[in-house]
Amino acid sequence: MSEISHFDAGGDRRLAYRLREGRGPTIVFLPGYASDMEGGKAVALDAWAEAQGRAMLRFDYGGCGASSGDFEAQSLADWRNDVLLMIDAFTEGPVVLVGSSMGGWLMLLAALSWPERVAGLVGVAPAPDFTNWGFTQDQKMTILREGRLEQPNPYREQPTVTTRAFWESGEALRLLHAEIEISCPVRILHGQADADVPWAWSLELMKKLRSADVQATFVKDGDHRLSRPGDISLLIATVNGLLEGL
């Protein structure tokens, strides 16, 4: 496993990361909301990259995992900026972004910001615009009125917190209302038993992407995380196929 390091991102932001040298394009893994770079998919993909001699970067957004910062002070725009900063600091040439859930939204935003650097995208249950469709009207009103919303988290003991700052940032960065001007190859994996991000949103994303090279694979009994051994094998095969086609 590559060693954990920290990057001074300015102010009080020190971003934790693991960088693996190798042949490019560099794989960059983007975790989901309140997740980190030590999840099963990220670790398995890193081990595969090591075996293949491929370059890979994974890191924690500000306020997440081993990075510094207050989680509740972060916004989607802050994390988008973390992605661009880390790509700029630690990679050269083309990159392939692998985004899980909210990381799938961030990979799209990064590709729009740097089309000349992003050679391909792989989304696992990508969740663009979830600040719009992922909350009821009552929940949105709670966020606006009280400044935060707590919800039970099925994956850990601590509740999931959504702040007004994050929600408003997400609403300002919505993508699905118009064509998404991304032309690179895109691969999407989504479980049809996903209770968090309905798989139909991946079909909507396919429609909105400008690229003609978009393929989606649906796993009938797959949940949101797609972290079972077979799911991870599918992810690795998808990333490998995309890289070989570049």
Largest sheet: 8 strands, mixed
Order of helices and strands: EEEHEHEHEHHEEHEHEH
- From the coordinates shown, what is the CATH architecture? 3-Layer(aba) Sandwich
Provide the β-strand percentage band.
15-25%
Number of strands: 10
Averaging pLDDT over every residue, what do you get?
96
Oligomer status: single chain
Which regions contain 5 or more consecutive residues with pLDDT less than 50?
Answer: none
For the largest sheet, list the strands in their spatial order: 1-2-4-3-5-6-9-10
Radius of gyration: 17 Å
Coarse structural class: alpha/beta
Report on this structure:
The chain is of the alpha/beta class. About 35% of the residues lie in helices and about 25% in strands. The chain has one domain (about 5-130, about 180-245): Rossmann fold. It is built from eight helices and ten strands. Strands 1-2-4-3-5-6-9-10 form an eight-stranded mixed β-sheet, sandwiched between helices. The chain has a two-stranded antiparallel ribbon with strand order 7-8.
List the helices and strands and how they pair.
Elements: E1 4-8, E2 14-20, E3 23-30, H1 40-52, E4 54-59, H2 76-90, E5 95-100, H3 102-113, E6 118-124, H4 130-133, H5 137-146, E7 148-151, E8 160-163, H6 164-172, E9 186-191, H7 200-208, E10 214-219, H8 229-244
Helix pairs in contact: 2-3
Pfam families: Hydrolase_4 (PF12146)
InterPro entries: AB_hydrolase_fold (IPR029058), ABHD10_acyl-thioesterase (IPR052382), Hydrolase_4 (IPR022742)
Protein name: 2-hydroxymuconic semialdehyde hydrolase
